[in-house]
Specification:
The chain has 196 residues and is α+β, with helices and mostly antiparallel strands. It has one helix and eleven strands, in the order αβββββββββββ.
Amino acid sequence: MKKTIKSNKGFSLIEMIIVLAIIAVVSTMSVISIGIINSAKAKDAASVFDSEVASTHAKAKGMAADVDGNGTISDSELEYTYALKLYKVAGKSEYYLATGYAKWQPGGVLVFVNTSTANGGLGRNLSSYVKIRYTGTLETGVQVNDYDPGTTGVIIMFNRRGECILGDGEYEFQKTNGNTVARKYIRANGSHGSKN
């Protein structure tokens, strides 16, 4: 009887190159997919922002704010205007957009009344895959460029003529790597839209 000796020399160089090529292709596709997903989330955040600004602007035109929701407008409620607040919750990475009313109190203090019901009252979630930068004037009167709203936030207010009395300027929506995906603007006259 003949003994067969099996030779086990391992993988050939060609086989190793093929495996490495497959790993490289799969890795590249994963990185591209993540980039596409991040771009889509940033564009979605810009779209939600634009939609909320349009809705708040439309409500503000010619309508008084019924802050207590009782169906009648009292003299004290006439001081309020429709508003949005763009902000982050402390300890979280995502931005929120809350709807509500705002008014100036004596001494120049701005009061924002949040009426959002989404996300337990936090407002619309704009994703943790987006960075938002604001260029304009804060309620303190400070002019800012490339400002991260963070936990202090940016208030956007419209009066009954539809004019933006606070929060006008440019809002830049970026992927987490810093690449700009969309730019939205709000002008003092209340017009708003996209910038290229």
